[in-house]
Every structure is written in structure tokens, then in C-alpha cells.
What we know:
By secondary structure, this protein is an alpha/beta fold. The protein is 32% helix and 33% strand. The chain folds into two domains: 7-133, CATH 2.40.50.140; 144-185, no CATH class.
Amino acid sequence: MTKTLSLYELNSIVASVIDIDMPGDYWVVAELSELREVRGHCYMELVEKDELSNTPIAKASAKCWASRWSMLRPMFERITGQRLHAGMKVMLSVHAQFHAAYGFSWIVSDINPEYTMGDLARRRQEIVAQLKAEGVFDLQRELTLPMFAQRIAVVSSDGAAGYGDFCRQLADNSAHYIYNVELFAATMQGEAV
């Protein structure tokens, strides 16, 4: 009769092999396809896409435990000026972990905010180049503002204190001018996405 293993025994063997053969940390570049925080821990879904077709060619789950996440998140936000969110490219330091009961995960031990800043700057340059190629980048320079602008468009979060202050300043002007303010609601830097 063939010797059989329980699933737990098999998973324990896999965990031992990973611990022996992959003991260190690895820096990896990936895109965040999902990110959620639960009880202080951060759970990420990582993806790598083919550059030509934008089709996913690799996927993995990663976790950052609360003890580490409580340090990494504020550091990342302070340096980049924004929160981690889906669609963002990141460089993470990870180590492999295979738990007999929960399966495989990459455990995040560090994040390189400079990589993300460089990627954002590169993306901005690509967008500017595309707008220039389409001939629309400098269109706003052709517009002339009247001496007295009465219609104002504001891009802001509707609950932002600055938006409310701005509207109050316009309404309380000493010359009693009437302004038509139109809000274009947007998620601002630092808000949850």
C-alpha cells in the first residue's frame, strides 16, 4: 500500500523546503492590484503585466503585519505625499512564507518610496509627451481671463475644509461680488481610495 500524507503533513514539508531554500529577503517590483487593511495588517495583491498587451503574467499575495505596517505606511506617505493604492507600482522587500494551514504568501518587510516617486514622475512625463503630441498641452495658454472672473471651477473633495473656506471667502467679499462656483469632486492626496 502506498504511504499517504495528510494535507497538513504535505504543507509542512513544503514550508520546510521554502524555509531552507529561500531564507532571505528579495526586492521585487510589482503593481498593486488590490490593497486592504484589516485590524492594522495590510493585505496586498500584486500583479505584473505584459508591457504590450497589459495582460497579467504573474500574480501573488503579500502581507505586511501590523507591527511593520505601522512604520512603513507613514514613512511611505511622508516621502511620496500619497497613500498606497491599487494601480500603483511599488518596490517591496519580501520573504517567502508557507504556512501549513494558510498556504503561501510573500511577507513584506520594507518598501522603497523612491521607486514609486520615480515611476510617478516617469508616468507624468509620458502623459505630458502624449498631450504635446496631440497638440492639446498648451491649449489653456490661448485662453484669456476676463478682468473679473465670476464663474469658478474647483477641483476638490466636497468635504475638504479648504473648499468650504474658499467658498466662504468668495461669499463674504467686501465688494459684494457674486460668484458662481462649480465643484468637480475628486479624491485628494492622502484620502482613502
